[in-house]
Amino acid sequence: MQEIIVAPNQANQRFDKLLKKLLPQAERGFLYKMLRKKNITLNGKKAQGNEVLALGDHIQFFFSEETFRKFGGQGAYCTDSSLRPYMEAYAALKDISIVYEDTNIIVCNKPAGVLSQKAGEDDNSVNEWLIGYLLRSEQIDAKILASFKPSVCNRLDRNTSGLMLLGKSLSGSQHLSQWIKNRDIRKFYRLFVSGKVTKPFRVKGYLVKEERTNQVRVSDRPLPGSDRIETACEPLQIYGDITYLEVELITGKPHQIRAHLSSLGHPLIGDYKYGRREINDTFRRAYGVESQLLHAYRLEFPLIEEAEYSDVSRAVFYAPEPEIFDTIRKTYKV
């Protein structure tokens, strides 16, 4: 008989979902059969699988060690080789900095050029860096990773820098995801655009994915498969033929800021996908700019009544703009 005591990162989820994480090679039908036959029990009793687990619950497996390992029990303890990608990512991505950390969440500052989540097998990303950091600081161990993996809760484009939200615990991941989904957390960006923006504005539209070009475009009316978008912009300073803006994402869709401002005649400086080559080439020659000058600058949390999250209730977090932003503000001339 094997027994697992439900840990904080395993609680508050359905029993059958945790079983599938613990025994990933087992078919769901097999798991439910084991439940019916009381070969898997919860707190010593027969279970249906739809129970929501509580901290400290006891899960018993009444089958052989060989069967347990065959269906994935061995993976619950992870081998050193399975942890290597996380430790390598943590070592490689030293420029990621932590702005805020508590028991459940991390707010980090991601440099431009770093993936939020890996796109290929050999990629390093913030996701792997997070797990590597938590392993290195002994906040989690290999056993926990079998049933819960800390992860990023929002994504930034590879070449967008700034604040990201990371869930350390299951509770943290669930709460962050819900706050983001409900638009409770306000997200502000700093950026440079082509042209003069003289007054604040707020615009709406619909974002349509173009599969052929792997781009998005903005429509003023809903189309099949489109997503509604809303963007608020405030000019901070005009420098000749470019404007330094602060943008709030009212909705948060991939490439929303880049496509929305381009559709309004104010593409981001350095954005070769949605912008203007001529001005982008000028900034490449003068400043070495290779991609969009877009930085996730500020996050504003809502009022949160739960005591566990009191430290982030109405909290505001900042990530200083990259050095190139200050250089352009001080030296750019038409």
Question: How would you characterize this protein structure?
Answer:
By secondary structure, this protein is of the alpha+beta class. It is 26% helix and 26% strand. The protein contains nine helices and 14 strands. It has helices spanning 15-22, 28-36, 65-70, 80-92, 126-136, 170-181, 256-263, 277-287, 323-331; strands at residues 2-5, 40-42, 58-61, 97-101, 105-110, 151-152, 161-167, 186-194, 201-210, 215-219, 227-239, 242-249, 294-300, 316-318. The strands form two sheets. Strands 4, 5, 6, 7, 8, 9, 10, 11, 12, 13 and 14 form an eleven-stranded mixed beta sheet that branches. A three-stranded antiparallel beta sheet has the order 1-3-2.
Task: Summarize this structure as a short list of keywords or feature phrases.
about 325 residues, alpha+beta, 3-stranded antiparallel sheet, 9 helices
Distance between the termini: 75 Å
Helix/strand structural class: alpha+beta
Biggest beta sheet summary: 11 strands, mixed
H-E order: EHHEEHHEEHEEHEEEEEHHEEH
Quaternary structure state of the chains depicted: single chain
Strand content: 25-35%
Share of helical residues: 25-40%
Q: Given the C-alpha coordinates, what overall shape results?
A: elongated
The mean pLDDT is: 92
- Tally the helices: what do you get? 9
Low-confidence parts lasting 5 or more residues at pLDDT below 50? none
Number of DSSP E strands: 14
- Cα gyration radius (Å): 24 Å
